[in-house]
Design a protein that fits this description.
Helix content: 25-40%
Strand content: 15-25%
Number of helices: 22
Shape: globular
Number of domains: 7
Structural class: alpha+beta
CATH class of the largest domain: Mainly Beta
Radius of gyration: 30 Å
CATH topology of the largest domain: Endonuclease - Pi-scei, Chain A, domain 1
Distance between the termini: 46 Å
CATH architecture of the largest domain: Beta Complex
CATH superfamily of the largest domain: Hedgehog/Intein (Hint) domain
Amino acid sequence: MKAIQYLINSVLPEDIRDYTRTYDTKSINELQSLIAEKYPDRYRDIMDKLMDIARKSVYYSGQTLKLSDFKPPFDKEAALEEMHKEVQFLRRNIKDENKKNKAIMEVYERYATKLEKDTLNAAKEKHNNLYNSVSSGARGSPFQLKALITTPALYTDYKGRTIPFFVKKSFGEGLSIPEYLASTYGTRASTIAIKKSTAKFGGWGKSLFRPVANMMITSKKDLSNNGIDLDIDDSSLYGRVLARPAGGFAEGTIVDRDVLNSLKTKGVKTVIVHSPIATVSPEGISAEAFGLDYNKRLPRIGEFHAGIAAATSVSEPAIQGGLCLHQDTEVMLWSQQFKKIKDLKPGEKVISISKDGKSLVPEEIISVIDQNIRNVYEVIFSVDDIEYSVVCTRQHRFKIYGELKDLPVQEIFDSNLCLDVRGDPAKITQIRYVGLQHCFDIEISGDTHLFVLKNGLLSHNSSKHEAGGFKGKKRTFSGFNYINQFFESPEHYKSRAPLAESDGRVERITPAPQGGTYIVVNGIEHYADPDSQIEVKEGQEVEQGDQLSDGLVDLEDVIRLRGLGEGRRVFVETGKQLLDDSNAPAHKRNLEVLARGIVDKVEITDPDGLGDYLPGDIVSYNALEASYVPDKDAKKVKINDKNVNLKGKYLQAPVLHYTIGTKLTNKMLDHIKRTGITDELYVSDKEPGFSPVYVRLREVPNKGNTDFLERANAPYQAKNYVESAVRGYKTNIKDNIDPFVRMSMPDFAENVDKTGRF
């Protein structure tokens, strides 16, 4: 270890060298972050040298497993004999069968935990090579190590219940037939659960890839000074490229840590940066629109597939994660009763903590969220030598002792921090992988989002975030069902928020006969479901597209009423809110890449001057925008010109994220002015010869796509083949940037580094 420390420190800047550092997964990640923060310009060079050290170390030293590594590192038999005596005593002295079985199971579970702890300690002392693999984070878990060299101890059945049969052999020794059979119940159930859960999640994940399959880096510079405005404290601002000057920095400046600190010092509140949803490019996106890549530099043409990277980054956490607890976890109600989390109901009150952290208060349950099957861990807490057990996902959060904040299980464990249990410090002593289990989460109304489990642990519910003005005041939407609902946008779904169909005054708000509420604007009835929180009042003036109640917006409504650009913004903001609330956080820029590919269709209404189209054709807005010629009656008008009323006019050239054809409202104009833009706006009294439409996620690769090979790789293949034949669709192999088309060609990727095309 000392040799490795000296080698690693030899390539590190002097001020971050540490000869006591232990190199496990967590410390390596921390070191990488430290290098990126302090030496962003040298990051790639330093990481290359570290990788070279790692490769050479593995090549010259290696690691060999010995037969002794598979033997129990301590006297396992003595521990098993002690357990056997305790069990025999219980069998002789307890007559009631239920009590006897329960007592025996408690002994089994206690010894299972003890054996895992003893295995880890003994393996560490004997420098067991398998232990090194687990402790470093390279491979394996403490439970797997125990099963391999000591004993798996206990298994669960197909319902997740512990089987009352203690396994005494390890995998290294070989299981007996009864021991092996005991392992098959839970294994079979887990395999089936994986297939059932991943089918639904995986299908959604795959549907994200096709619309962005062509999102390569195809140019270096962005062709416009359009972009999105970001708050100076927005976490996604780092690594972006300025689309307009700000704080003395010119357009094209990369917002690194020095620039960011300078902008904050100068009091800059918002900046306009390039973005995938605002770039003007018929194919792919520009390097400036994407910003710094994972190597801390602007990606080169053709070397980085932004679309695939974005789809992967967004879908994987949603498929894998969740702030959730095992379905049988008991929660403490304000009535001092206990109830399993799966059996809780909206409206019930749980014990929470006040905002100042000084007292316990009742908080109402807003919703109970079924998180389906998740990989879970058993977390053992110790308070005054009394152990508590919680089964939850590794990402689940608990309150830190002495502080009004919470951290995920793994972070607390690694930091050796304490948790708050009835005012006493509790310590995580052990984490072991349990397997796939059915999990739940709850939403509560309090500001701290903390509730109390039966054992007294302060636990965290799904986090709440505000986003884009489309967030409900009282309801929070999280979990896969809501994520899928928003991205797929079916024609009808529960919790849909009504948007005002026109400008006007809220004339009345009345109960609906079927339950829920009617909100009447300009004589048009808008329906809000029974659980909705109404966000307007009678007599209030609203604009077309304003949200009238809380709930989940329909992208189709937003695009129809506010335009394609606003649809892209809502896609990003609401999508991020949903993913964050579901503990599957996504970088805003990745969602912008997805928005560019998914929210991209317009319907031709008047093809005159637009190209070889027919009325009713569905085409790509990105392609149309690049060649669009403004209407002959279009005028350039200063946004601050008081002699011209811009409300109700149609954009003939994009500005910020607003797209061509957007019907300007007062709120849009106020937003543009607040960003400091004083440019002339290109506007017309007439709507352009196309109107924005929203195409359902799974249909995006087909609608408006005249490339038969691309369509052949999309959903609904039979339909696509027939339509391609009837319409005579062709494929342009030479200029095609879709990898699914080009991978079969002999010259695949021949010029990708120069053109961005495959």
